[in-house]
Amino acid sequence: MNEDIYQMIDTLHARLDDVRAAVDSLESDAPGFAKRLDKLDDSLYLLQLDLEKHAKSPLQENEPSPSAEEDNVEQAPKASASESDEDNESFLSDKAKDNLKDAGKTMAGIYRDGKEVVSELSGTMNEIKGLFKFK
Fold first, then answer.
1. 98 pLDDT band (50/70/90 cuts)?
2. Is the CB of residue 132 less than 8 Å from the CB of residue 25?
3. Chain-wide mean pLDDT for the chain?
4. pLDDT in tens, 40-95
5. How far apart are CA 36 and CA 43, in angstroms?
6. In the chain, what percentage of residues exceed pLDDT 70?
7. Residue 128 has pLDDT above 80, yes or no
8. Confidence at residue 59, expressed as pLDDT on a 0 to 100 scale
9. Which 3 state secondary structure label does DSSP give 56?
10. CA 129 to CA 51: how far, in whole Å?
């Protein structure tokens, strides 16, 4: 679950190591790069907040506890075959469907933000590498 997110995090770790190595090899100050990295840090922080908000989504809060589910099973009357077929067709409530839709939109936003951060890191790396090119 969320393997693509973990892969992006690993990619970002590797990219930051590359940025550190490039900064370590600088022989002079590189003004402006700290501000650009700060902007990336801010973007990552906002991404973290989105993930934390997603983790506390109403879908998870509305799920009944296991003991409550057991109580519902014991009290539920036996359904006929046609009623159980109808239940299987629509086992998600409209609210749950909306929550899943919102979660999908949130994940898409997180993915876009992650791509943007990687793009900015890549641009920063290219500029740092450009400092070492002699004309």
1. confident
2. yes
3. 76
4. 888 888 888 888 888 887 655 445 544 444 444 444 544 444 455 555 556 778 88
5. 11
6. 73
7. yes
8. 56
9. coil
10. 32
User: Is residue 103 within 8 Å of 57, Cβ to Cβ?
Assistant: yes
What are the tokens at 21? Answer: 């190595």
- The C-alpha atoms of residue 21 and residue 86 are separated, in whole angstroms, by 61
Query: 51-57 long-range CB contacts below 8 Å, 24 or more apart?
Result: 51/110, 53/106, 54/103, 54/106, 54/107, 54/110, 57/99, 57/102, 57/103
102 — alpha (psi -120 to 50), left (phi > 0) or beta? alpha
User: 117: exposed, middle or buried (C-beta count within 10 Å: 0-12, 13-18, 19+)?
Assistant: buried
Helix (H, G, I), strand (E, B) or coil at 25: coil
Structural contact between residues 19 and 128, judged by C-beta atoms closer than 8 angstroms: yes
